[in-house]
Amino acid sequence: MKTPNLKSTLLTLLFYFVITFFLVSCKSDTEDVKNKGYIVTDDLNNKIHFEEMPNRVITLAPNLTEMIFDLGLQNFLVGNTLHCNYPDEAKKIEKVGDLLTFNFEQIVKLNPDLIFITVEGNTKETYEKFKELGLKIFVSNPRNFNGVKKTFSDIGKVFKIEEKVDKTINDWENSIDKIKSDKKSFVNMTAMFLIELKPIMLAGRTTFLNEYLEYNGLKNIADDVEFNYPIFNREEILRRNPDFIIYPTGGDDTIEKIISVYPEWKNLKAVKKGNVVFINRDLYMRPGSRFVEALADLNALLHQLQNLH
């Protein structure tokens, strides 16, 4: 009987060691990925860890609810706010409060895997209460169109539908490019984006609302103010004398109503020419997936007025 030499034995042992190490490493890596799950970073730079995709979510702002529906994720939605009224199906979701006050006991009973909240719409106290209750929170803060895209993308990452999100965002950007290419129609013209009539609150240049004006080629009369929503006095509006007034409304406002509050505004260029645009508050005031729809709507309304002159 032939006895194996030392070299052959060592090679055999080395082969089995390499194979065993490779198999154990592969198994270890697989288990590691499974245990780690995936991470999505929210707008407060919190790294939210998901062991698996959430099945029960709550949205605490209308723009977030609209994004969930726009992405076809409404079957995961178990709660939202009293202000979440679009689309119509959103009205049927269980209401857990408004933007500022919530029924925390009801929220806990709904047993959500994840709660989406916003910086501008919700409060720090609400955020802290959810943390205290041990609930998983994802914070959104879309301050402009890029912020809208990030929130939309983040939701896509949470639900593993990045490809669908990318296609939608690409469509949005193509639509915006077409509108921006036409902005020369309103070059050297100014606009006042009126948030509230009393007091006179305007949208500043650091808001997503300013982009409705900017993308249409209009200059915001409040673009030299640092505040998001500055308060102006009535005389300053006369001095800045906008070519257009954009006013979000519930549907019952008129030029006559504005003049009844500030009679001297009848001398504004926008009023003299009839360039007061009343827009749908819900459509325009939510930094969500209808941003491009609102932008296109304003573009059409501006052109209608221009064609009348």
What are the salient characteristics of this protein?
44% helix, 309 residues, Rossmann fold, alpha/beta, 4-stranded parallel sheet, 6-stranded mixed sheet, 16% strand
Please provide a written account of the structure:
It is a single chain. The protein is α/β, with parallel strands linked by helices and 309 residues long. It is built from 12 helices and 12 strands. Helix 5 runs antiparallel to helix 6. The longest helix has 31 residues.
Short overview:
This protein is an alpha/beta fold. Helices cover 44% and strands 16% of the residues.
Number of helices: 12
| Average residue pLDDT | 90
Annotated CATH architecture of the largest domain: 3-Layer(aba) Sandwich
Strand content: 15-25%
Can you say what the CATH homologous superfamily of the largest domain is? Answer: Nitrogenase molybdenum iron protein domain
Structural class: alpha/beta
Low-confidence stretches: 9-34
* CATH fold naming of the largest domain: Rossmann fold
Considering DSSP H and I runs of 4 or more, what fraction of the residues is helical?
40-55%
Measured between the Cα atoms of the first and last residue, the distance is 109 Å
Assembly category = single chain
- Profile the largest sheet: 6 strands, mixed
Count of distinct strands: 12
Tell me, what is the CATH class of the largest domain? Alpha Beta
Instruction: Estimate nothing, just give the exact number of structural domains.
Output: 2
